Amino acid sequence: MAHILVAGGGIGGLAAALALSDRGHTVTVLERAAELTELGAGIQLAPNAFHALDRLGVGERVRERAVFIDALRLMDGTTDEPIATLPLTSAYRHRFGNPYAVVHRTDLYQPLLDACRERAATVRLRTRSAVRGYEQDEDSATAVLDDGERVTADALIGADGIRSAVRAQLVGDGEPRVSGHTIYRSVIPMDRVPAELRSDTVTLWAGPRWHFVHYPISGGRHLNLAATRDDGASVPVSGLPTSTDQVLDEFPDLGTTAGRLLRLGDNWKSWVLCDREPLDRWVDGRVALLGDAAHPMLQYAAQGACMALEDAVLLGDLTDCPPHALSGRLAVWNAARSRRTAKAQSVARDMGRLVYHPSGAAAEIRNKELSGLTVDELHDKVAWLHGARDLTRV
Question: Is residue 92 part of a domain?
């Protein structure tokens, strides 16, 4: 079978390595960092993520680390009044075939990494191997590293994130789009959270041009806090330490309950959220993009990692072929995935604008429309995304 390079050792890159090795290919993962690890805090996994993780052979390992969520709750962040609740228990799990869960990012990443290490015969993990570009001919693809080394194989998958060097050459669309939204994140021990404020839900408090979301992670040992302000930020920021006073100043009109939770946070860090416009084409011959390199999206649909996992599974399915057929199969994979991922990108943007951040009359319309939906209707709304086993569904 083929030898395939993967640029980037994050969630998408490791998932791709597992899916490709399942098809008999050998894989070399080229990671820029000195060690394989995953930064960040909480991440949400809908049933479609677990469908993919099961296909990759790590679903049970992730379930062991996860907190299974009973409901997604949308609250009015200024009045403490409920707007809508999407139940995620028996009917949801029966319909979509898997639970909805939350984990710390490392609780998703570590099982993928462990599984790759267990396949040392077919998956090679290289650190300090930053890919700056590529070369290719009819029969091979070569990753060009920052130090000038060239690594040649039968194909190259760029899973190197929103600022992908592989994308810069393949697409050439410059820097990501800055959303104008700043997110502040904190993770605190659950024993600091009053009992009456604890629940196995993802709760989102929506206000005018802001929202605040929290949920348990790390097997329930910690609470993940994330507060987002539509503040017109124009310069990307990543993991900037931010004082508690500054965060509290950004959300002065939080209601009583949400305010109590926000004040529990400490060691805050901030990011300015970015995404990109959807692409129709993310394949160039024997070179392709995957995950955030192909279709980075805002966090508001909680589907960025889920889409990367889906990408990896279908990539494996469609590259069960000899080396000479890879370029054609990559093009088929691109065409099969692009409409679904583009819709997820668009829905994520729309949720920020129409659900999480409206004010005045727009907020009243949102409240009326969502509060009037039945549980079945709410499940229908997310079925194309959460319940999909067909990884091309829109």
Answer: yes
